[in-house]
Each structure stands twice: as structure tokens, then as C-alpha cells.
Design goal:
Layout lengths: L1 H14 L11 H12 L4 H23 L4 E2 L1 H19 L7 H27 L8 E7 L5 E6 L7 E4 L2 E4 L4 E4 L13 E8 L18 E6 L3 E4 L8 E8 L5 E12 L28 H50 L1
Parallel strand pairs: 4-11, 5-11
Antiparallel strand pairs: 1-2, 2-3, 6-9, 7-8, 7-10, 10-11
Helix pairs in contact: 1-2, 2-3, 2-4, 3-5, 4-5
Length: 340
């Protein structure tokens, strides 16, 4: 008898389809508890345990209702797995006490497990958006069906502030628009990147003064971040990322004021101006000034001209003397030739 009951329990754990609702609606849990009721030794005990089980279901619904009445698949899986473990251990144990008391204990254990996991989910997982609008798919703990749950922005709007970015010309800038809760959004929302050109911080591109017509669309993508490479100064401005659905519903929006500075090798070096010399050093031989160089150049030029003229005169006189000597030698030769 015990072996048959364990075999049935194993087959239920392996073959029952996955659950689609909270613990009291979970198909696996309901079948396991049905098996638990049928394990009672007498018909009277089974009837009593059925009443206790139904009361437990009402308690499970009340526990869920106090905690928004919804649950996500991950939280449900954790609660169901822990409760199945408790039921499995209970069914494998020999019991000598009151069947009714033991039934109350195991069903109350399920309520506490559900309560623990729902508290964690509501506190940390249901609406993780600190800014922006979240529409997500959850399980209704009363109808046992999926439904859409809306988590409004805590600030009441989808604009989530500014994230200033600094870059250098020729370098790159990363604009990251993603948040972990974005993957919970229904459908396939896309990131819309646009730009309003202008120097960040000026009145012209101040977010409060910008209109929709000031932005030019850059890219629409399912990636949460974009990389701007080989930046130029004229690419600086107010970048905007908007996460929105196909019908234009905006879930999240953030501004990236991007400033692009000149790279160090492109900036002009300042002109170095030497200080003026003290009055006592104006004519120092080791530091000639422009006023001293002018007369020196004039003297050198005059001396050069005098030397050139003198050299020309000397050369002229030497040439004249040579011609006279040659003429005289020629006359002497002619006289000797006549006498002979």
C-alpha cells in the first residue's frame, strides 16, 4: 500500500503540467493534497481532512489578497517547489498521532511558505522601477489566469533625469539607457535615440527649452546602449534615449548632455613672450638689442664699400702700369732691328 502511494506521488510530480496560478490554484499542489486526503485511514477522516483542505485554500487566497493578489512565475516556482518538498517528506513519514492535527500542520506550513515568498516578491520584485512606467505580466491568485499589472512611475512621469557624458575629439562615448526592469515589459519595446545639437549647458539646448522638433532621430534599436566612435566637436549636444512600445507609449526616457573637448595634440600652444630687459642691460655685449645692431650693420656696409673701391683703384693702376711696360719693350725691339 505504501509503495503504491509513493509510486503515485512520483508520477504526479513528473507528469502534471506546470502551474499557472498561485499556490491554492496550482494543479500539482491540488493533486498532491487530494492524494494526501485519500491517504486518511477511514472515510470519516477523509471527510474531515477535505474540510481542512478547503479551509486551507481559503487561507491561501486570503494570504494572497493581503499581498496584491498577484505572483510572478519565478516566485510561484520557488513556493511550489518548497511546499512539494514538505508534502513529499510528510507522505514518506510514518504517523501515529491524530490525522486531523497532522493535516492542519501540513496545510498551515503551505500558508507560511506562500506568505514568505509573496512578501519577498511584493517588496523587491513586483515594481522594481524607481522611475518610468512598467507594464508586466503576472498571475492572478483568484482567477488563476495571467493579467497585466501596471507599476506607475514613483515620480509620476517617465522622464528620468540627466546623465552627463564627457568625451574627447577622436574618441568615443557610450550612452547606456538600460535598466534591469526593462526586460519585464510586455511586447518588444525599442530604444529611440535622438540628438539636439548645440553646446551642452547653454540656454539653447537646455532640456526645459527644447522642443520635439529640435531633436533629430539617430537610431531605433532593441539594444539598450549605443557607442559613438570618432567623435567630432560638432557632434556634441543633448542626446535623448526613449524606451517605447510599437504604439508610441513611452516607458522610460533619459537625457545625455554630451560635451566633446579638443584632444591635447589638436589644441594650439600659447605664444611665449620673453620679458623685456632691464634698463641697465640694454647695451650689454652679450645681449645685443635692435638699436645697437643698426649702426653696426651700417659701419660694416660702409667699410665694405670703401674696401671695394680701393681694390678697384689698385687693380686699375696695376693694369695701366703693365700696358706701359709692354709698350716700352715693343719700341726698344723695333730700334734694334733698324740698326742692324
Amino acid at each position: 500500500m505504501e509503495a503504491q502511494r509513493l509510486l503515485r506521488l512520483v508520477s504526479l510530480l513528473c507528469c502534471v503540467p506546470a502551474a499557472k496560478a498561485c499556490l491554492q490554484c496550482d494543479h500539482k499542489i491540488r493533486i498532491l493534497l487530494e492524494d494526501f486526503v485519500l491517504s486518511a485511514p477511514t472515510v470519516a477522516d477523509q471527510i474531515e481532512m477535505t474540510k481542512i483542505r478547503d479551509h486551507a485554500y481559503a487561507e491561501y487566497r486570503a494570504t494572497s489578497q493581503k499581498r496584491k493578489g498577484v505572483i510572478d512565475p519565478t516566485t510561484l516556482y520557488r513556493a511550489r517547489t518548497e511546499y512539494q518538498s514538505e508534502l513529499d517528506r510528510f507522505l514518506k513519514t510514518e504517523h501515529t498521532g491524530s490525522v486531523t492535527f497532522e493535516a492542519i500542520q501540513i496545510l498551515e506550513k503551505g500558508r507560511k511558505i506562500l506568505e514568505k515568498h509573496l512578501d519577498t516578491f511584493i517588496r523587491d520584485g513586483l515594481c522594481p522601477n524607481k522611475c518610468g512606467l512598467l507594464k508586466r505580466r503576472v498571475m492572478d491568485c483568484f482567477s488563476c489566469h495571467y493579467k497585466i499589472y501596471i507599476c506607475p512611475s514613483p515620480s509620476g512621469q517617465q522622464d528620468c533625469g540627466e546623465l552627463p557624458v564627457q568625451a574627447v575629439e577622436g574618441g568615443q562615448a557610450v550612452l547606456n539607457c538600460g535598466h534591469p526592469w526593462h526586460h519585464l515589459l510586455l511586447g518588444a519595446p525599442e530604444y529611440h535615440y535622438s540628438l539636439a545639437r548645440g553646446v551642452p549647458g547653454t540656454e539653447k539646448v537646455s532640456p526645459s527649452n527644447l522642443k520635439e522638433s529640435d531633436f533629430e532621430v539617430l537610431v531605433v534599436t532593441d539594444e539598450s546602449s549605443v557607442v559613438l566612435n570618432q567623435l567630432h566637436v560638432d557632434e556634441q549636444g543633448t542626446y535623448r534615449c526613449s524606451l517605447q512600445s510599437q504604439d508610441g507609449t513611452v516607458f522610460y526616457r533619459v537625457i545625455f548632455p554630451l560635451a566633446v573637448a579638443l584632444s591635447p595634440d589638436q589644441t594650439h600652444r600659447p605664444v611665449i613672450v620673453l620679458p623685456s630687459l632691464p634698463a641697465g642691460d640694454r647695451y650689454s655685449p652679450s645681449q645685443p638689442t635692435a638699436g645697437l645692431l643698426v649702426p653696426v650693420v651700417a659701419v660694416v656696409t660702409a667699410l665694405s664699400l670703401v674696401a671695394s673701391v680701393g681694390l678697384t683703384v689698385v687693380l686699375g693702376m696695376m693694369m695701366s702700369q703693365r700696358r706701359a711696360e709692354e709698350k716700352e719693350d715693343g719700341g726698344t725691339k723695333h730700334t734694334k732691328h733698324c740698326v742692324m
